[in-house]
Specification:
The structure holds 2 protein chains of 2 kinds. Chain A is α/β, with parallel strands linked by helices. In chain A, 30% of the residues lie in helices and 23% in strands. Chain B is of the alpha/beta class. In chain B, strand 5, helix 4 and strand 6 form a beta-alpha-beta unit. Classes of the chains: A alpha/beta, B alpha/beta.
Chain lengths: 421, 318
């Protein structure tokens, strides 16, 4: 039997609304409760005024194992998650081979579980091979542990296939996660379309590519009664469509990722390929719209959209470089920037990072409820540090390289066991 | 001219990666030096400015005209010239660009002239190279020496680069020549118009300080300079325009449309020309109006000037 008592923390549990001092007691890896005293025989962990919160639930993480282990192995992913305070994550299916087979879904979850620091819940392929044509075996994949369906970094482009996927997933109470980008408009594009792309001589991706796909899929969700979830929404236009659809009762949810509320397209100046993302970084007006949509509840979750790439994939002319940035280790700090700026309260920010994505995925995580696994993150919301790619434990392709941050993870616990700090 | 010298700093030294970032003083210095080289070249006097220096022409895209022009410029300055053609060789792929830079460093190259089909390729090389990099065209980004040679040509005919009305016509979307010329001419105080079908106008181009026209005749009204751009035939395939004949009808420069410009308007083209697509032969070959041949001569002088300016620091007589 192990008994832990976390003392001296500001305990924030967005699900229950608890925000204040207390003693969090953990017995045998499970949360016993938040009390006022340290039980006899407990090992005391003095939090020294830092914030203790549920471990983060990151609902969009790119996997490179199997297939591209040189970019990031599952071991590297587990270490990066622990360093970022992430204790549960949803992994995308666009590995090589893609996660369209029950055995592969089980393999990934089991292999990640062996590291003991993070629960990896696969988002299985919505279509076979993530190819966008035939539906994958959603029922069997769900039984194998999949928590949602999507085609990863590929949009489900064909309208009929999307209709079928949304309808079919209803039977298994699962959502379809869409990469909202109309491929025929975006194809060949390297960055956000506009003045800067014109100056750099780079082919652009118009904001309309996102809005078009969102508008289409909202209609298909209404038609089928299915649940569509839009990943990494980045434009004002798309957010307006989602806001209205929510008011109309369409089953739609969405997330965004830190680059889209912290950076804008100017980050790619000088052909910085680490800032080449998919979707591309947008205009400052779009960035502000994302912040507003986080504040008004239109956006349901903040996910890292962690997409590891190695230097060979990034040290290329901009248009030839791979898209994607690593994000697990900067997820909390960048989000705390919104708290420091006054755009979100700390409990609201933590809800977007933990309890709300957990509720979306229908999983027992992201809250400090008695009986729940003691997945915890301890952080100093004010500690200053600077992102340096060489100091990251996981993939180094961060779009935030060099950026000063305020707020740092001090410790991470998975089921009561300290896995970081 | 700024004390920091000519061109853009990157990595360990200065390069010419684009017109963007040059101030009017830097541009004027390059043009003045080019004028000096024009007269020296006509006197035939051999020069030894770059004696013992190595210039590498690294062309990832085929270009007889620009490569020859740089080669001639380097030879007239006494440099040792190596032409590296990359089609079909190990450096034909973008993946090896950094490796190429490392190889060139090991060879102690002084100046690298590079053309590449990817925007930003010259800047990427500049970060890694010990040599001065001259961008001889990178994707759809910039082609700075072309804009400089166009500027010399214009200045010799019009006496100034200020307050001229310059119409740039054609495939602006895919043109690095257009971008460099827009940047140079607006920096020097001229009014620039771009004229193209809407499908070939880049988004946000007006923010570069140009006026946009889709009606060529209106756009040419009162122009001092008519600068034509090449329409690459492969653009037809991607259906930016329906056909060559439709393009020529509405956006090809013929005597009728040219009549809208000022009577002494110059006609320019960076070459190679698609006769009957963007320009009518009668206009292209009209020696009263067309300075297309003269542009070629200016090209050598401008490149000599740029080679001279960029190597001054290394030669120790800045």
């Amino acid at each position: 039997m192990t008994l832990l008592a976390f003392t001296g923390a500001r305990i924030v549990d967005p699900a229950s609304g608890h925000d204040g001092p207390g003693v969090l007691v953990v017995r045998d890896g499970l949360i016993e409760g938040i009390g006022a005293t340290v039980p006899a025989g407990a090992e005391v962990i003095d939090c020294q005024g830092a914030v203790l919160a549920p471990g983060l639930v990151d609902m969009r993480v790119g996997l490179r194992e199997p297939g591209e282990e040189h970019k990031e192995s599952l071991a590297g992913l587990a270490a990066a998650a622990a360093a970022g305070g992430v204790t549960t994550l949803m992994a995308l299916p666009d590995t090589d081979p893609p996660l369209d087979e029950p055995a592969l879904v089980q393999f990934v979850a089991r292999r990640a579980a062996a590291f003991g620091s993070v629960t990896v819940l696969p988002c299985a392929a919505a279509t076979k091979g993530c190819a966008g044509r035939e539906l994958a075996e959603m029922g069997l994949l769900k039984e194998a542990g999949a928590v949602a369906f999507g085609d990863g970094r590929q949009a489900i482009a064909d309208a009929r296939t999307m209709r079928l996927a949304l309808a079919y997933a209803r039977a298994f109470r699962a959502m379809i996660v869409q990469h909202p980008e109309e491929p025929s408009l975006a194809s060949g594009g390297a960055m956000n379309e506009g003045e800067l792309a014109t100056r750099l001589g780079l082919p652009g991706i118009p904001a309309a590519a996102e809005a078009l796909m969102v508008a289409r899929d909202l209609r298909l969700a209404a038609l089928t009664g299915g649940h569509v979830h839009f990943a990494h929404v980045s434009t004002a236009e798309a957010l307006d469509l989602i806001r209205r659809a929510k008011a109309d009762g369409v089953r739609v949810t969405c997330d965004t990722a830190p680059p889209y509320f912290d950076l804008n397209e100017t980050a790619v100046g000088g052909w910085r390929t680490y800032a080449k993302l998919s979707p591309p970084l947008r205009t400052e007006a779009d960035r502000q719209a994302v912040v507003a949509a986080l504040a008004d509840g239109t956006i349901d979750a903040i996910a890292s959209d962690h997409q590891p790439q190695d230097t060979d994939a990034k040290r290329l002319p901009f248009a030839q470089a791979e898209a994607g940035g690593s994000g697990l280790e900067t997820l909390l700090a960048v989000t705390l920037g919104l708290v420091h700026a006054g755009a979100l309260t700390l409990p609201a920010a933590l809800a977007l990072l933990a309890s709300r994505p957990a509720a979306l995925l229908g999983i027992e995580a992201g809250r400090l409820a008695p009986g729940a696994p003691a997945d915890l993150v301890l952080f100093d919301p004010d500690r200053a540090w600077q992102v340096r790619e060489e100091a990251l434990v996981g993939a180094r392709n961060t779009p935030f390289d060099g950026r000063p941050m305020q707020g740092r993870v001090l410790g991470t616990w998975k089921a009561g066991r300290r896995v970081f700090g | 001219m700024a004390q920091t010298g000519f061109g853009q700093a990157a990595g360990r030294r200065r390069h010419l990666l684009g017109i963007g970032g040059l101030d009017p003083g830097q541009i004027r210095a390059a043009l003045d030096l080019a004028e000096t080289y024009i007269s020296l070249n006509r006197k035939g006097g051999p020069r030894d400015v770059l004696r013992g220096r190595t210039l590498v022409n690294l062309f990832f895209e085929n270009s007889t005209r620009t490569r020859t022009s740089f080669e001639l410029a380097g030879k007239r300055l006494g440099a040792d010239i190596v032409n590296m053609s990359t089609s079909g060789s190990s450096v034909s792929k973008g993946e090896t660009l950094i490796d190429t830079a490392m190889t060139l460093n090991a060879m102690h190259v002084d100046v690298l002239v590079v053309r590449h089909d990817q925007s930003g390729a010259a800047a990427l090389l500049a970060q890694k190279l010990d040599a001065a990099v001259i961008n001889a065209g990178d994707g759809t980004h910039e082609h700075p020496t072309q804009a400089l040679l166009d500027a010399v040509t214009i200045r010799r005919h019009k006496g100034t680069l200020e307050n001229l009305t310059v119409a740039i016509c054609g495939d602006v979307l895919h043109s690095r020549v257009a971008r460099s010329n827009i940047l140079l001419l607006t920096t020097m105080g001229s009014r620039v118009r771009v004229i193209a079908p809407p499908t070939l106008i880049p988004t946000g181009v007006a923010a570069l300080g140009v006026e946009v026209f889709t009606d060529m005749e209106r756009g040419l009204e009162g122009a001092d300079i008519v600068m034509m751009l090449r329409l690459q035939r492969e653009r037809m395939g991607r259906a930016f325009v329906p056909s060559a004949r439709e393009y020529f009808r509405f956006y090809g420069l013929d005597a009728g449309k040219l009549a809208r410009a000022k009577p002494d308007a110059l006609v320019m083209h960076p070459g190679p020309m698609n006769r009957g697509v963007e320009i009518d032969s009668a206009v292209a070959d009209d020696l009263q109006r067309s300075v297309i041949q003269e542009q070629v001569e200016m090209g050598v002088a401008v490149r000599m000037a740029v080679l001279d300016l960029l190597t001054r620091e290394a030669r120790g007589n800045a």
